[in-house]
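User: Sequence in, structure out. Go.
Assistant: Echoing your sequence, followed by the structure tokens.
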Amino acid sequence: MTTTERFGRLVEPGTLRIERLLAAPVERVWSYLTDPGKRARWLAGGTMAAQPGAVFELRFEHTTLSGEAAPERYAAYRAPHQQKSRLLRIEAPRLLVISWGSEADDASEVTFELAPQGDSTRLVLTHRRLPDRKETVSVASGWHAHLEVLEALLEGRAPAGFWTALAAIEQHYEAQIR
């Protein structure tokens, strides 16, 4: 993927899509989406629901992702925080759809689609129902930075500084998302 292709794009108002080619088979990538211990290493731990409709908890501990403490601008994220989500659809190991930020029916929605591509996996992440530009920039930057951590883990590398990467990525999305 080229540098430009690594960035997410709006596919319609309120809908962001990010694609990655990950250096791991589908089953391994799937485990990083659904196993709370592995998911905690790149996104958020917590729990995982077994059946559609069930509520589960995401526990974010951003400092543990790369060892880098949040700068003052993100001071609220220095301490662990939790969010409830609802499992909307699951078709292991190819499709996972969850609510984001809330278990409510009108919450935004994240879809992870996995497809084998040789020895790698194509991940398509789609985040729907983003309410405004500010939230879209924030979500795009956050997903991008978290996916950078996931890629490093799958490749056996130590993740770069999460917050440093987020600040640089955020500038790009701030300029691109209108």
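User: And one key feature?
Assistant: The chain has one domain: 4-176.
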